[in-house]
Amino acid sequence: MKQLIPILFLLISFTSFAQRNGEIQEKIKAQKIAFITDKLELTSEEAQQFWPIYNEFEAKIETIKSEDLRPLKKEMRQGDVSDKRASEILEKLIKAEDEMHNAKQKLVVELKKVLPAKKIIMLQVAEDQFNQKLLDRLKDFRERRQNRRN
Description:
Oligomer: single chain
Helix content: over 70%
Shape: flat
Order of helices and strands: HHHH
Strand content: under 5%
Number of helices: 4
Largest sheet: none
Distance between the termini: 39 Å
């Protein structure tokens, strides 16, 4: 019985963290949608056509990152690989990068059907700005947290 209490505590903590992490990701996604919609000045008709295409692209990229790149990069960080395995990893990395590039090209082709070229170009700018804003907020959060500890 005494062993069960710490295990239950850990399970509840992990579940709570996962739920909180999911909530945070949903908030970030909502902020990104609002930010990009605003920066691209999407009309309601453009937004209705744009977001399904963009969301499909993002899902494809996330799949490539989570299923292909993250495991490879984790293995690379371990550093203890043979030359043969290193060669295999490089080939898989190139393949994953090619898939990401192809997904980006498909995105542009699909977006050209629903948006003017200027807005497609502005998408990259808006993504970069949003990511920088997110990194700045994370940095500020870490600094405030560090200051509280001191």
